[in-house]
């Protein structure tokens, strides 16, 4: 069953066949990156605050969107919903759990987080060497990855969202340039900044679940 619970952010209104596309162009990034706006939507969804007229109607549609697997959603609504879910799951676990407990307490629908077939190549040309060799730049990226509410550049934010999935699939969704860049970063941190490497490992692989897959490569560095 596809995830479509966060339909509220898409401004869906229910019809017999398809949800209306009136709000398909809502600025999802503007909502997700603004704690005040996001909090307002969440309070409405959780029956913990006032709702605008459209939000009230949207909230009523969430159960239907869950049960029909978002079959009434437009393509843009599906993609937007996946984007919101990935963001909440990766960056706002407290909100994710609240919504899951309210709308899917038995975990009948919200069992998987949607993933992309391939990771975006939008930031493939970032100068990794410059970042790695600059204590200031490297620290800002590490703060983003390790501290939940730390500010993130757009590329660091995307990296943070992709790491858990990339670990589980051994970077199979990475472009060749992303795979080479990953090796470059790991090599640098493992050899020159072992404490920073340990912090990342503790955050993203605390049980050494994935370490077994790359330990031999590390030993050869």
Describe this structure in words.
It is a single chain. The chain is mostly helical and 221 residues long. It folds into 2 domains: 5-103, Antennal chemosensory protein a6 (Orthogonal Bundle), CATH 1.10.2080.10; 128-219, Orthogonal Bundle (Antennal chemosensory protein a6), CATH 1.10.2080.10. Helices cover 58% and strands 0% of the residues. It is built from 11 helices and no strands. The protein has helices at 28-32, 35-45, 53-67, 75-91, 93-103, 128-133, 135-146, 154-168, 176-192, 194-204, 211-219. The chain is elongated, with a radius of gyration of 20 Å. It starts with 27 loop residues before the first helix and ends with a helix.
Secondary-structure blueprint:
Elements: H1 28-32, H2 35-45, H3 53-67, H4 75-91, H5 93-103, H6 128-133, H7 135-146, H8 154-168, H9 176-192, H10 194-204, H11 211-219
InterPro entries: A10/PebIII, OS_D_A10/PebIII_sf
Signal peptide: 1-15
Pfam family, one: OS-D
Report the sheet with the most strands, covering strand number, pairing sense and barrel closure: none
**Which stretches are low in confidence, meaning pLDDT under 50 for 5 or more residues running?**
1-5, 8-16
The CATH class label of the largest domain is: Mainly Alpha
Question: How many domain regions?
Answer: 2
In whole angstroms, the N-to-C terminal distance is 43 Å
Q: In DSSP terms, counting alpha (H) and pi (I) runs of 4 or more, how many helices? A: 11
**Helix and strand element order:** HHHHHHHHHHH
Give the name of the CATH architecture of the largest domain: Orthogonal Bundle
Portion in beta strands: under 5%
Quickly give the structural class.
Answer: mainly alpha
CATH superfamily label of the largest domain: Insect odorant-binding protein A10/Ejaculatory bulb-specific protein 3
CATH topology assignment of the largest domain = Antennal chemosensory protein a6
List how many beta strands DSSP finds. Answer: 0
**Residue share in helix:** 55-70%
Mean pLDDT: 83
Cα gyration radius (Å): 20 Å
Based on Cα principal axes, name the global outline: elongated
Pfam family, one: OS-D
Keywords: Signal
Signal peptide: 1-15
InterPro entries: A10/PebIII (IPR005055), OS_D_A10/PebIII_sf (IPR036682)
């Amino acid at each position: 069953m596809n995830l479509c619970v966060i339909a509220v952010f898409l401004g869906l209104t229910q019809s017999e066949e398809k949800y209306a596309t009136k709000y398909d162009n809502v600025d999802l990034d503007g909502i997700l990156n603004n704690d005040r706006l996001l909090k307002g939507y969440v309070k409405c969804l959780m029956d913990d605050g006032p709702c605008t007229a459209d939000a009230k109607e949207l909230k009523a549609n969430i159960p239907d969107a869950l049960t029909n697997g978002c079959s009434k959603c437009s393509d843009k609504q599906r993609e937007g919903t996946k984007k919101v879910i990935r963001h909440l799951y990766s960056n706002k676990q407290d909100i994710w759990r609240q919504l899951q407990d309210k709308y899917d307490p038995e975990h009948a629908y919200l069992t998987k987080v949607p993933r992309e077939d391939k990771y975006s190549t939008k930031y493939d040309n970032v100068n990794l060497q410059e970042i790695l060799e600059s204590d200031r730049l490297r620290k800002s990226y590490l703060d983003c990855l390790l501290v939940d509410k730390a500010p993130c550049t757009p590329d660091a934010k995307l990296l943070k969202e992709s790491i858990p999935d990339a670990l589980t699939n051994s970077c199979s969704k990475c472009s060749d340039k992303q795979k080479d860049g990953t090796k470059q970063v790991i090599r640098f941190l493992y050899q020159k900044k072992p404490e920073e490497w340990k912090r990342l490992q503790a955050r993203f692989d605390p049980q050494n679940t994935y370490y077994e897959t790359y330990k031999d490569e590390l030993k050869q560095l």
